[in-house]
Write a structure and sequence with these properties.
The chain is α/β, with parallel strands linked by helices and about 450 residues long. It is elongated. It has a 10-stranded mixed β-sheet, with helices on both faces. Strand 25 and strand 26 form a beta hairpin. The chain contains 14 helices and 27 strands. About 0% of the residues have low confidence.
Length: about 450
């Protein structure tokens, strides 16, 4: 059975071709026209989804085949995409890197899995007729992937556009949906972990929408989106609640890298998520059964985090009480003794782990990984395998032998350390393939309650 879901995937020829800017412009322009736009992001990205939410008003979901598996990705898309074609709803998926980059986690694999037409963003800044050769290669590389349309980006002049367009019409199958001129005024700011978050970024959205409306054929784009062939699947059954608990979630400018799907799974298992800010709050919320520190930018806010001595002290006491605490990447850094910045300045953090984390100027780790528990933890029994990715510039000092090594990565490196019932490490986990991890976390909080 197929659904008539208006959907498309916007991909690029390579990173930096303007894919995110074009995607945001299309999303914003469609919303301004009165459409309900449900955004998605291919790959393990925390930043682009916040930009999607900024321009659409809807939570953007990550669709990652390598990390979550094809079954979960299909189900996630099926659950959140507007599967009834009412003429006023459309699902827009932003790709990752170039269309075919990333192996089984590529945007091409996602388009093939979901039956989505691809709109390719082609940067023609330093090319003319040769752009047709690039596009033809993308069209022909994988017969499962349908490059239905192309957008030329960074067009220099009318003559430039004519040369590119004539060559593409002569040699390629994809329809030309439009061409965007060079305009530095719509570029997005970036830093060491990528673009700025949607809560921080300031860009001229009205100008971007005007450019999209002026230079792209949105009506034809919507017609192509209507050619998607989305297979019906049987929804995955929700988790059965194991009990009601209150989980404190650190959520502010320093801790902002979370997967909404992980939040949903925790809530299905019975957790009430209680937001707090290690930057701004002097005390933890009342009657918490556990704490969750996601990734983010603690290094950018280290002086303010250090100055909040009251909350740091409460977090340390919470950990020492034996109640479950979980930290990922930036959350792990916060739970360590301190953060040392690029200039060698040290700022005190919580101190659950007796080591410093030191910022480096180069990326230390980047990529997918599997984490296998070597001991029983709040996320699972010995032998439990969880899926995630690493992306960090910092590294820790050697961890003392007295600290339990909780897990190993698939390349043999130690990942995750446990003190009492505090578990933390550098890997960002997505529990889509292993929803029992969320259930185990809630169960650990419930058991800690019984021990009180």
């Amino acid at each position: 059975m197929l659904h008539n879901c208006s959907s498309l995937l916007i991909a690029g020829t390579h990173s930096g071709c303007g894919k995110t800017t074009v995607t945001l412009g299309i999303m914003a322009a469609l919303r301004q026209r009165g459409f309900t736009v449900q955004p998605f992001k291919c790959g393990p990205d925390f930043i682009d989804p916040t930009l999607h939410q900024l321009v659409t008003g809807h939570i953007s979901r990550n669709l990652d085949i390598r990390m979550c598996g094809p079954d979960y990705v299909r189900e996630c898309f099926h659950r959140h995409a507007p599967l009834i074609d009412d003429g006023q709803s459309v699902a827009v998926v932003e790709g990752v890197m170039g269309l075919f980059d990333g192996g089984s986690g590529s945007a091409a694999e996602l388009a093939a899995l979901l039956g989505l037409p691809v709109l390719l963003v082609l940067d023609v800044r330093s090319a003319a007729e040769s752009a047709a050769a690039v596009l033809k290669g993308f069209e022909s590389l994988d017969s499962r992937v349908r490059v239905a349309g192309v957008i030329f980006n960074q067009v220099g002049s009318e003559r430039h556009l004519q040369l590119v367009s004539d060559a593409v019409r002569q040699h390629c199958q994809a329809e030309i949906i439009g061409a965007l001129p060079r305009d530095s005024g719509i570029s997005l700011p970036s830093r060491h972990l990528g673009l700025h978050l949607g809560t921080e970024v300031e860009f001229n959205q009205d100008r971007l929408v005007d450019l999209i409306e002026q230079h792209l054929d949105l009506d034809r784009l919507l017609q192509l989106a209507g050619t998607a062939k989305i297979s019906h699947i049987r929804p995955i059954a929700p988790l059965k609640p194991v009990g009601k608990v209150r989980l404190g979630v650190a959520l502010d400018e320093a801790f902002c890298f979370y997967y909404q799907d992980n939040f949903d799974l925790l809530q299905e298992a019975g957790a009430k998520l209680v937001r707090f800010s290690p930057l701004h709050d002097k005390t933890l919320p009342e009657k918490l059964d556990g704490l969750y520190f996601g990734g983010g930018y603690p290094e950018l806010h280290a002086p303010q985090l250090a100055a909040n001595y009251e909350l740091r002290t409460q977090v340390l006491a919470f950990s020492r009480s034996g109640r479950p605490v979980y930290g990922e990447c930036g959350g792990f850094m916060y739970l360590c003794k301190g953060i040392v910045d690029h200039e060698g300045r040290q700022q005190a953090m919580v101190g659950v782990y007796p080591v410093l984390t030191k910022m480096g100027k180069r990326l230390r780790r980047l990529g997918y990984c599997q984490t296998k528990m070597q001991i029983e933890t709040l996320l699972g029994l010995t032998g439990t395998v969880l899926y995630g990715h690493e992306f960090h510039y910092s590294e820790i000092e050697p961890m003392p032998d007295t600290i339990q090594r909780a897990a190993l990565l698939d390349d043999g490196r130690t990942e995750c350390y446990m003190v009492d019932h505090t578990l933390a490490g550098y890997v960002h986990l997505h529990w889509g393939r292993t929803p029992e991890a969320a259930r185990n976390f809630v169960q650990a909080m419930q058991q800690a309650n019984l021990r009180k």
